[in-house]
Design goal:
This protein is mainly alpha-helical and 212 residues long. The chain folds into two domains: 3-28 and 152-208, Orthogonal Bundle (Endonuclease Iii, domain 2); 36-144, Hypothetical protein, domain 2 (Endonuclease III, domain 1, Orthogonal Bundle). It has helices spanning 3-12, 14-23, 36-46, 51-63, 81-87, 91-105, 112-115, 120-127, 135-144, 157-167, 175-181, 189-208.
Length: 212
């Protein structure tokens, strides 16, 4: 993220400015090489699982498609539901993968080239039509694949927890309250969210340090 974004955030919100100085440079690096299809499949794999467990499942999944870095939507026709279950996907996740593949083939899930031309809300509306894909999942794609600068995932636990510890609240903000507060961070809400994630991480690490 640009120094201009950090300057604007600090000027608009002194508390955010202090957090930025504490954390240091923003190291968020989107991964544009991933297609929307791949991003959604990976997101579904990670739902309700620890990251390491999800990556293990994805590793098994990829072995079903030798010679490819990641399968194409049509490649899923070559594997059975039982094959996918043997990788570690639940029945509901198998159904989600099938639906995502179908919607990639019919154009509901755009190609990498086409998605770059679409506004954030249209992307959220189109991809949320996929089974197992909600607004939060699409927001992660907007941030980590497309690098969109003004996304605030108000339902994200880490963002809300980071806000709580940064602003000294006893409880996490309600999503609607966080959305209203975050208006001051426009048009750099993605950067603000990244710093709130880091604040939540730092607080979690600090809680693990034994007290002397």
């Amino acid at each position: 993220m640009t120094p201009e974004a950090l300057r604007c955030l600090a000027e608009a919100d002194p508390v955010m400015g202090r957090l930025i100085r504490k954390i240091g440079a923003c190291t968020l690096e989107p991964e544009p090489q991933r297609t929307p299809f791949e991003s959604l499949v990976r997101a579904v794999a990670h739902q309700q699982l620890h990251g390491k467990a999800a990556e293990t499942i994805l590793g098994r999944f990829l072995t079903r498609f030798p010679g490819r870095r990641f399968p194409r939507p049509e490649d899923l026709d070559a594997v059975t539901d039982a094959d996918l279950r043997s990788c570690g996907f639940s029945g509901s996740k198998v159904a989600a993968l099938r639906d995502i593949a179908a919607k990639a083939l019919d154009g509901t899930v755009p190609t990498s080239r086409k998605i770059r031309a679409l506004p954030d809300e249209e992307i959220i509306e189109r991809l949320s039509a996929c089974r197992g894909v909600g607004r939060w999942t699409v927001e992660m794609l907007l941030i980590f694949k497309l690098g969109r600068p003004d996304v605030l995932p108000i339902d994200d636990f880490g963002v809300r927890e980071g806000f709580r510890v940064t602003y000294g609240h006893e409880a996490q903000p309600k999503p609607r309250a966080l959305l209203a507060f975050g208006e001051r961070w426009r048009p750099h809400r993605t950067t603000a969210a990244w710093y709130l994630w880091r604040a939540a991480d730092a607080a979690k690490e600090a809680s693990r340090v034994p007290k002397s």
